[in-house]
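Lab meeting tomorrow. Look over both lines:
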Amino acid sequence: MNAAVSLSAEIIGRIALIQSIVFNLPDSTSIFRFVCRGLQIVPGTARISYCTHEGERGKEASCIEASASLHRFPLRLKERNYGELLIEVVDASLFDPYQPYIENLAFMLAVIFEERRQSRLNKAHEEELEQRVHERTRELQQEIEERGKAQTALKVSEERLRLAMEATQDGLWDLNRNTGDLFWSPRSYAMLGYTPGVFSMNLNKWKELLHPEDQVAVWPEIQRKLESPGQSFEIEYRCAAKEGTFRLVVTRGKPVEWDPQGHVIRVVGTHVDVTDRRTMEHRLQQSQKMEAMGTLAGGIAHDFNNIIGIIIGNAELALDDIREWSPDHHYLGEIKKASLRAKDVVRQLLSFGRRTEQSKRPVHIKAIVDESLQLLRASIPSTIEIRTHTPADLNIISADPTQLHQILINLCTNAAHAMENKGGTLDVGLSNLELDEQGGRIYSLAPGSYLQLCVSDNGSGIDPRLIDRVFDPYFTTKENGKGSGIGLSVVHGIVKNHDGAISIASEPGVGTTVRILFPAVYDQPAMPVRIQDDLPAGNERVLLVDDEKAIADMGKLILERLGYEVVTRTDPVEAVALFRAAPDRFQLVITDMTMPGMTGAQLVAEILNIRPGIPTVLCTGFSEKINAQGARDIGVRKYIEKPFSRLELALTVRRAIDERR
């Protein structure tokens, strides 16, 4: 065995998980502390801390800076610096292989901080723009006031305003403070779902329509504005609609008549329902954030798939050279298994950015629960105890394992947030459940066998008035910056896509319990396929092109062991020139997709232009520019995604050569 220090796929996978989890952490301090805890698994390190551009410093930052073996990893994006990761290295030979991954992590953290900074700037810009609109609106109202100095002119203005209100979606109101009479136009009723005139409108009724919280916080301000002489006003509040929900309403008003002592007699104004507009503005912001995260996930996935592919390929080559009874054979097998798990982690990262399709198969959920909780433990405060109840002989379900991870991460993270102030207990349980007809009606499911997942906490709980809204997109009870409001809606969507049901029960001050039911299936989970010794082989001459030399060398060795004669190039331009010089020398061309100077698709086009019909194989770690169908459309014979096993490569090569067109 080679005694040189090698990368641990498990540690690389853990770094990848750190990168995927930090998106959900609320602030820079939480992110830095979580990353410092997570990086303690990296070999060769002693202490890990941080300092930010705002002067905040980790607990051991001063001690580490005094160390002679300090490694600094700046969080810099363009001209902006967001701080540094400080790592005291005690064994450089163990630490150095992981340095590029930590640098990549530092760059990704800088991207996250920059995105959050941009979000704050955008919000400030929107507030400034809205303020300008408000100021312009007040100017227009003042102009209207100046045109209404005489009583006759005022009546004409009122008539024009009435006609304008009938043609728009705005409601009109008119208050006489001496008599207490309050007029609401038909549109003011209709925007809340009421029939015009269904109830008598007065100030008390107006107050009753406000959300209970706004009756306390906003109504006193409305009363002050109604009594203030000569000043227009604008107030936003929640108003009760007929169906039991609340609409977001902006009320604008202006005093138009006074008594000789200067006291306000009459105030008129408008109601505008801005619920849909505010919702769309928020959804647009969230959509932009998700798109940015998805783009970042795609870039990371490409690099990781290349790295994982190198690990899998070399592990398989080494397994060939070692007898099965050797302990080293077992260790290499574990490396391969960990690499395949890392492949699933990358898939989960892409799923977060909505870049992979759902893939269901029969699974035992217990292993997924155990693994998810093990990964979450590092990010959940130590004041929270995690307990599991997972008996044997649980029902098998048909599910996408990656999406099951998403469900558990979202539910457990929400539970942890509910207990972060006082600590508590997080209970995760699995059980079999038989639904009869009555139980099926409760959950809107067919009678039969189910597997129940139950996640409980003894945290702050949820207000009963809000319980029916927890699955609405972008609805959240958390403070600003601590949640997007999409976690439970994502869980709800995944459960429905798996033909399951979800329910939630909560009591303020006691805690929350979420129950999910998945239909049981009777298919057994697929057993791992053992790679056969008699892999398909050949003796053809192959041109292999990949800008990653390690991947090219590994592919060459695998194919040569299968009997092929392989020529490699790491420069696609050189590869085309080599092929052009002797087009009949090769029987197959294998190329990577993403390469500097020329993409794999462009290389295939050049090759086919020189020699039409030659078999080609296109490989990709991740690319939004090409997929299997797109590859076939440009003449590629076979398409394979990284990381791939030796068996997948052997089968793909043989099929590409043998296929007749």
Summary: The first strand starts at residue 45 and ends at 52. The longest helix spans residues 99-146. The chain has 21 helices and 20 strands. The chain has five domains: 1-143, 147-273, 288-356, 361-521, 541-658.
